[in-house]
Amino acid sequence: MEETKVNSNYDESNIQVLEGLEAVRKRPGMYIGSTSVRGLHHLVYEIVDNAIDEALAGYCKNILVEILPGNIVSVTDDGRGIPVGIHPKMGISTLEVVFTILHAGGKFGGGGYKVSGGLHGVGSSVVNALSEYLEVEVIHDGEVYYQRYERGKSCGPVKVIDKAPEGKTGTKVTFKADDTVFETVEYEYDVLLQRLREQAFLNGGVRIDFIDKRGEEVVENNLYYEGGIREYVNYLNQNKVPIHDDIIYFDGSKGDSYVEIAMQYTDNYSEVLVSFANDIKTTEGGTHEVGFKTAITRVFNEYIKKYNLIKEKDKDLTLSGEDVREGLTAIISVKVSEPQFEGQTKTKLGNSEFRGIVDKTVSEKFADFLEENPGTARMIMEKALLACKAREAARKARENTRKATNNGDSSLLGKLAKCSGKDPTKNEIYIVEGDSAGGSAKQGRDRSFQAILPLWGKMLNVEKARLDKVYSNEKLLPIIMALGAGIGDEFDVSKLKYHKVIIMADADVDGSHIRTLLLTFFFRHMRPLIDGGYVYLAQPPLFKIWKGKNVKYAYSDYEMQSIIEEMGGKCDVQRYKGLGEMSHTQLWETTMDPEKRTMMRVTLDDAVLADEMFTILMGDNVEPRREFIEKNAASVMNLDI
Questions:
Q1: 506 has catalytic annotation
Q2: CATH class of the domain at 229-390
Q3: What is the pTM of this model?
Q4: Which residue among 198, 212, 433, 612 is the active-site one?
Q5: Which CATH class is domain 410-540+599-635?
Q6: Residue in 279, 506, 611, 612 annotated catalytic
Q7: Could you count the other beta carbons within 10 Å of the beta carbon of residue 197?
Q8: 468 catalytic, yes or no?
Q9: I need a surface site. Which of 12, 18, 27, 257 has the fewest CB within 10 A?
């Protein structure tokens, strides 16, 4: 291999020093994750989090978040107001220090905050660096102070612009994201609403008003929850059926560390456990979750043993963590003065002391609750015991599946057409609706790396089924065996036989139903598939348009009309009603050829939101589904009748 030399001279002149906020503009992804819409929203979170930190410190009760015309964001709080005096070390206004110097803030042990989510203290300066402009107004010491910045640089010194109303303090930050940095500067109201609602739940008594003024009609949500995380559990269970009315709540503390937990059981088969540390969602868990899970399992088993709730024939049963958390919705929120988060994303709490604090709190106070509420205790114990028996039946079904897999039982694999390649990272499997489409896919595929698994008959809706029914379902077994990575707690990504799992269904209502059933199954029982980005949705065309020998395909009505106009009109058009109508050549050219196909990768930004959506669409409760359909019916496109 020929070696290419970039530069023969490597000396002091090659070392680049990025001063001030240049580093942020040069490598924005290092500070906000990406320059996509996700990174754009992160700017808002950073400024709001500063206001929330004031609330955590006990100085802020009201926060106003506005999206103004032109996608300008304004965040106003009634906290103490950022200090404006001359900084003793930097020699400029402390306000300017906060907005122009990285790692400057009141969150590094200077006594400004006892508890804070802004661990790195880079929020304000990063937002400033990535904004076309940013303006800040501070009400402090009876004056209104103002400063403007453009792309991170101040446009002049901090100045007084007005007298402050008596007794008022606070901070207002207004910024416009830099469209030369971000792929889009269009904010998604519902995404921001989800985050702001979460913050309002976690800080009971703090009011967050969220207003969108971009459209003809102003959209406004007033978020105020006096009950805090109790109301959060109520909100998460609004589309589920609780098996007891009361929200179980308890808290505990040790020194500067504080924990509060709210929980309720529903008749669902899946659990929703959401944890936070200093209002930061710890999506990867941590010591607080470990302490909770360990304690709640022990409390259940001790209660059952104490009151002899297991019948003689089942005396060998011991409840597992999976059993006691079936149908549980729980919020764990901890506050700590010196949080230790693992990784840059701050999604896993590492403070070892919290395992013991949470364990002790749950062990004592949940046990007390069960003793004081025997009716509720019996209901949730019975649910856990049923889950335990179902788990045992599922274990046997899973063991049979494993044995069949190891023995190469081809009868259970249905009509799987394997690929010849042995490298899972290059292999892909198409899960195809129907025998007809499956036949075309088998003929059209590239056998070296593409496997085809046709589905037939109606799949099980796993949202309404316990594990034993899932693991023994004849429609799901071929999928479990074909992927080869197991299921549930035993799922092992390293054993996955295909790194692209592609759902290919008709572009109609039935096809959408098949996709939703499969996604529900993957989300509930093979979650690492989605978390790891292994699941894709094939995008077959809706139309074939041709004029003479000129043939093109369209994936929407709009695209079809554009192609017809491009061809000069009077074209022949075929509307595909299903994959089975396409020849194997057409299927390969339009939907399976890696060089030409279009696929959608299934990703998961918010597990709580996904859980809510699957519950609405696939659960037993009809009313929320009706409301969802009525609300979104007007935006439906390409609906086959």
A1: yes
A2: alpha beta
A3: 0.74
A4: 433
A5: alpha beta
A6: 506
A7: 17
A8: no
A9: 12
